[in-house]
Amino acid sequence: RVEPLVGREGFFDQIGATEAQKRTTRHGQSPIVSTPHGRRRVAGEDFEWGDLIDGQDRVRMLIDPASAYLQSAMFALGRSIDDVLIKAASGTAFTGETGTTPVALPAGQKIAVAASGLTVAKLRTAKRMLDEKEVDPEEPRYFACTAEQIDNLLGDTTVTSSDFNTVKALVEGNVDTYMGFKFVRTERLTKTGNDRFCLAYAQSGLFLAINKDIQGQIAPRADKSFAMYAYACLTCGATRMEEEKVVEVACLETS
């Protein structure tokens, strides 16, 4: 979920689940269902990127490198967005009227490493945990992991022949979905010792607030012999909106 952020900090509403009431009489009182409300605080963080492009470099390369420099900047800031979301997924969220009440990801939303990498059993457990919390099965679900976890699946002895074909296609990049999860490969996930912390989540479980989207420009700098200066910046923040929609999956990773 992505929305604009106005100001340095913002609050975003959480609407809890409710139950319908059975009508038992004609012309009875209209029901009043007390819908649970909450809100999460999101604080924006600033990111910058800049590099100099000497005039001599432009001549040697025969083409203007400015666009390539800015493309590199966009990718760098995109990775910053990844880092903000990864930190928010399993980190501390802040809720309450003033946004000062810390909320940690519960232990019940974490799958232990169990001295193994990513297995089909762990994927099944993550799926079951989301299903048991009645996360809408129609909502997109994602699984963020590194290349090693995808490779783990090929070596999982519990994989059936049909599973093996699917996982093989996943490794080769022919498909990107398995067991209801769209796989997102990233090497930026948190790692402590030999434990890599992967993330299974429903789309609305994470929230990205953009205060200032990625902006870039190129201009000469008089203080650097009028070399061209490529600059890009971004301000964004993220939070976990619902603990039930995020599962942390610890995987052994020794390489």
Q: Please count the beta strands (DSSP E, at least 2 residues each).
A: 15
Helix and strand pattern = EEEEHHEEEHEHHEEEEEEE
Gyration radius, in Å: 23 Å
Helix content: 25-40%
Biggest sheet architecture: 7 strands, mixed
| Overall residue-averaged pLDDT value | 88
Beta-strand content bin: 35-45%
Total number of helices: 5
Q: Which class of secondary structure composition applies to the elements?
A: alpha+beta
Q: Uncertain spans, ≥5 residues at pLDDT below 50?
A: none
Shape: globular
Write the layout of secondary structure elements.
Blueprint: E1 2-4, E2 9-15, E3 37-43, E4 45-53, H1 55-61, H2 66-90, E5 93-95, E6 101-103, E7 110-111, H3 120-132, E8 141-145, H4 147-154, H5 161-172, E9 177-178, E10 181-185, E11 191-192, E12 195-202, E13 206-221, E14 227-240, E15 246-252
Helix pairs in contact: 4-5
Characteristics of this structure?
255 residues; alpha+beta; 7-stranded mixed β-sheet; 4-stranded mixed β-sheet; 15 strands
Protein described:
- The protein has 255 residues and is of the alpha+beta class.
- Helix content is 25%, strand content 36%.
- The strands form four sheets. Strands 7, 8, 9, 10, 11, 12 and 15 form a seven-stranded mixed sheet that branches.
- The model has no long low-confidence stretch (mean pLDDT 88).
- The chain has helices at residues 55-61, 66-90, 120-132, 147-154, 161-172, and strands spanning 2-4, 9-15, 37-43, 45-53, 93-95, 101-103, 110-111, 141-145, 177-178, 181-185, 191-192, 195-202, 206-221, 227-240, 246-252.
- The protein is built from five helices and 15 strands.
- Strand 13 and strand 14 form a beta hairpin.
- The longest helix has 25 residues, at 66-90.
